[in-house]
Amino acid sequence: MPTWPYPRLIAHRGAGKLAPENTLPAIEEGFRRGYRCVEIDVGLTADGVVALLHDAALLRTTGDPRLLAETPSADLATLDAGAWLHPRFAGTRIPTLALVLTRCRKLGMQIFIELKVGRGQDAQRLGAAVAQTIAMSWSGPPPLLISFNAAALAAVGAADSMLPRALLLGHECPVDWAAQLAGCGACALDLDHRSITLERVVQVHAAGYALLAWTVNEPARAAELLRWGVDGVTTDVVDRIMPDGSAAE
């Protein structure tokens, strides 16, 4: 297996517990704490702009009941995506992927971009739009595209076969995982960390794939996975797990 080019610790949704998830303040907080790779979630607005949001609907983080897919991109600039977490973040906006790519490039951060194919989202349109946005707004080693939706990853590959992809799978890793990775052109398997054993690490690497783990919030478990050779560990607790995988003192 080729050398994995990304940092081994990844800040989930930015520093998404310390600042509003999937926003510039969260990404910048992760950077301030030494993280050099961030995971973000994206979907399409009504007019086809790729924007950061974990949920299909805007309600949880902005109070707006609409789906992202039915909201024009211009409306995002009117929504407060920060006050839900803490008043000091009031006025934080939902950023576009283009804006985040530009900011991360300036910070020297890498990105894992999760394609969220929820209500109202079309996998093929989303995959193609993300690939196009990266082509227009990024230079250097490419971000990693991740998704539970194999069709979205395949669409990314159809738009740009050089963009690396990882297939997300849940707690129950299916026996045909390797066939699923091959089917969408993935170079990595991204698993719920609870399904990862040392035997699984050896098996995935022997098949020529990288292995990633989500979402690990106990320092001892992160250290164990890294010791086993897991290539990347995503965490919420950037204040408890250091960028090198050690526990914060």
Folded structure, characterized:
This protein has 249 residues and is an alpha/beta fold. Helix content is 32%, strand content 18%. The protein has nine helices and nine strands. It has helices spanning 24-32, 59-62, 73-76, 97-107, 123-137, 150-159, 177-183, 198-206, 219-228; strands at residues 9-12, 37-44, 50-52, 110-115, 144-147, 165-169, 188-192, 210-214, 232-235. An eight-stranded parallel beta barrel has the order 1-2-4-5-6-7-8-9, surrounded by seven helices. β6, α7 and β7 (188-192) form a beta-alpha-beta unit. α4 crosses α5 (123-137). The radius of gyration is 17 Å and the shape is globular. The two termini are 34 Å apart. The mean pLDDT is 97.
